[in-house]
Amino acid sequence: MPEQSLEPDVPGELSFEVVFTELETVVQQLEEGELSLEESISLYERGQMLARLCQERLDRAELRLDRIRSDGAPSEYEAGGLLC
What we know:
It is a single chain. The chain is mainly alpha-helical and about 80 residues long. The protein contains two helices and no strands. The protein has a domain at about 15-65. α1 packs antiparallel against α2. It starts with 15 loop residues before the first helix and ends in a 14-residue tail after the last helix.
């Protein structure tokens, strides 16, 4: 599978995994410390946007799971422990 790269603005149809991979790349570049101050600030802003997008997607996934669980299925505790 070819690696997908994000454009300056992140389209909503990119998968969580693609956005998270881009965020990891941003963090790695910032940790290397070889960028100018202006590049670092710009990359930091992009990282913040990517992190926010990842969190929003995780929140939506959690809400979906909560809805699935509340549709009559017993929770893992009601079922007598963790499901294996």
